[in-house]
Write a structure and sequence with these properties.
Strand order of the largest sheet: 6-10-11-16-15-14-13-12
Order of helices and strands: HEEEHEEHHEEEEHEEHHHEHHEEEHHEH
CATH architecture of the largest domain: 2-Layer Sandwich
Bound molecules: 4-amino-1,4-dioxobutan-2-aminium adenosine-5'-monophosphate
CATH topology of the largest domain: BirA Bifunctional Protein, domain 2
CATH class of the largest domain: Alpha Beta
Number of helices: 13
Number of strands: 16
Distance between the termini: 53 Å
Amino acid sequence: ILKLTQKVNYSTAKSILRNKTIKTLLKEDSTNVAVRGWVRSVRKQKQISFATINDGSNLKGIQAILSSEDAEKLTTGACVELHGSLIPSPGREQTKELKVDGLKVLGECDVKRHTTEFLRSIGHLRMRGNTGSAVLRIRNAASEGLRDFFRDQEFIMTNTPILTSHDCEGGGEVFKVSPIDTTNPQEFFKKSVYLTVSGQLHAEITASAMSRVYTFGPVFRAEESLTSRHLAEFWMLEAEIAFIDDLAPLLDVTEASVQQTTRHVLETCGEDLDFFNQWVDKSLLERLHKSVDKPFIRMTYTEAIDVLQKAQSRDKTKFQFPTIWGSSLQSEHERYLASDYCSQPVFVTDYPSELKPFYMRANPDGKTVGCFDLLLPGIGEIVGGSMREERYKVLEQKMKHAKMNMEEYQWYLDLRKYGSAPHGGYGIGFERLLLWFTGLENVREVIPMPRWVGNCKY
Ligand code: 4AD
């Protein structure tokens, strides 16, 4: 009898699907193979012709050698199935190429030459290109890296709801949800309901029973700002950890999660990173390696203000926005701190309480809260996190100060009434993390179907 506690060795590496990806075919020794994918390019010559076929499993796809009659049937973008044998390649680009002896066009593609403006407007086809497909592979590897990290650290993956009755961040950037055929938006749930801006408060519920949890899902913000860092729908990895007493262990976990994910991307996406390093940002690999080899820098908000003021006094035109204690750090400040001053990821901690949401834990100085932002060179903020206020009376006071509906948030106060645990957590903006991994400059480039103010195609 097999005991459930006994270890069973299931092999998960064996492929279930009979079709092999180009990436796998190039590693194996099989000779008679079938390749399915999309035509990237065709070079028609008198005697023999060449085509590059890509199925998204690697950057360069595979080179096919075919007769000129067969090549006539191919157009760029067409979906094809090629049969043939894999032979050693004389070129340096790839070890093997496909000598085609049979060809089937699965989906035709009528091509014309297009302008760059037009290409930008057809986002649904951009993954067929090098940049779009490399982004998707890195996106996949980054989410694998995050999941591996949290599993290794004994976190429980949990799912938080998309529909909520509160605005976690208190920023008022919520989308209201209502059934399509009602005149009264409050009819369905008998109250106002929104798309979640963050799973944090719900993750706090689960962490107060399971100790270490994380959630990874889409969040929504009715963000009017048209910047390269803001989307209306983006993905956030949120971790919530019970039994930590101050910021130091929270920063340690944040740093380790970003570094381990970076290592996983470096280990598994070499070809794609080389591509971005060559074409997009020549310092990409250097700064990714540096970020895993050296610890992140840590400074308080008060120290950061001091650094900014010194820079401003050296050059009066340095910043457009004020650098006085109590003012928010603008993206120009964040970029200066991370890129010029530190040239390494930097944690800025302990911001003034007036700048931050109600749930952050008050520091003994009475002016600041135990929180942090992680700023990356060239990007700015990619993570926000804090210790959560676990003291019932202090939290109640903060909620009243923020003029919140106490009845609506009674459950949140209850978590502090029944077995309150010291805890903290953070949220990684996934698309901003991908800017860091790719060197691309706009978050719209790293999510397959971006939504931002004025744009919701598909
Ligand atoms: O700093 P934020 O607002 O933090 C929270 O929502 C916390 N409740 C998270 C937590 O502690 N569980 O957002 C976290 C991160 C930011 O650092 C940023 O990287 C990203 O989410 N972010 C956006 N990314 C794209 N588009 C937007 N409009 C974003 N707003 C925030």
